[in-house]
## 1
Amino acid sequence: MRKNKIAKGIVKSNGNIPVVLSIIVLVAFIAGLLLGSLVIAKAVGGKNVFISQMTGSFADGYNAAKKKLADVGMFVSQSPSLSGQITKVSGNEITFTAPLPNPLDDESLKTRIAVVSKDTVITLYRLKPAEKAASDLKEGQAEMAVLQTQMAALQTQLNKCMMPPAAAAQASAANGPSEECQAASKSYNEAIQKSNQAGQKMDAYEKVDKAAITDLKAGMQISVLGQEIKQADNQTAPMAMTGNFADISQQAKFTVSQVTAREAPAISAPNPVNVLLPASTTAK
């Protein structure tokens, strides 16, 4: 009896079963989408966790994802500094591109504008002219060689001061380090400072303190620090090394307290390769 009904159904549809099945599948697919949206909306208990055409919003999903990443330590919620490359300098504004601090940040934040005020400190590391760089490098290497020899001798003397004989140890414990050891320690510290200066001399860059915004050009690397937040009289002063600066991680335009820029080295074009072509065999 069942086979007869199926056969009659096939005859009525003129044998066009694929069309009938396609219609059934399409209706089921649409119903599944609607049912799925309702199930999701009910599952989240009225809270818009993910994007839903019926109950959700992109902002809610974005904020929920950021919170989840922050909970597991994969999302930087605040940052007082940014680094990137200058694209334009106009007036007191520096436009630069910088990588997004977080993967879910708005793509528009790849471009930032740093506003320079009268209190902003600008430091520039400028490439030395080729001749000066070569001269400073040679001079710095010579100074470093002398200093390393001096420091090695002083280190040997200091090692003896740290491990004196038993009799000298008793005198050292009673009277403190000898004058000779104190002089060696002082000379060693001075040699370290001079070696740092020699290292700076060997650097291809020279530091320009209190540079002007007009010294900055497109293509330079830049690091900026947000505006310093002044502490109230009744608040504990921040540590001198860290300070207290405004969060600029989610701001497209902001005032900065410090700007550090560095010239990009020129990229020389590769030397042309001389290609030897085979001699022409054409008869003259």
Note: Residues 39-55, 280-284 have pLDDT under 50 and may be disordered.
## 2
Amino acid sequence: KNSLAGIEFSLLNNTALNDNRPGGNRNGWQINLEWQFPVLLGLVTAQLSHTQLQDADGYSEFLENGIDRWLHRSYLLVQYRQPLYQDLALLVNLYQQHQSSNIELFESRDRTVEIGLSLPF
């Protein structure tokens, strides 16, 4: 039940394994921030992440005249876990994600709320 915080920064290089992958190689960066702290009878864990990727080649001649695609993706995940009995725990997850791109097909937003029980086995 300790409070923790962390930060991670990565440079990304995603090499295409075959020559016909749309967009070819991808390069970019990612940053992740994490927190963990006790609340009430449980523990809150939060993760905030942002990624930026750029294709080396045009994604497709049929989308935006074959321009090189870029993606920016951010998400926030907040989880509350409260022990109930031995290994059984109440679990509440809140998740929000947003992805933007210069090609509309790759833009997305979503939100999820999950409430359940966790029992490892």
Note: The two ends are 22 Å apart (CA to CA).
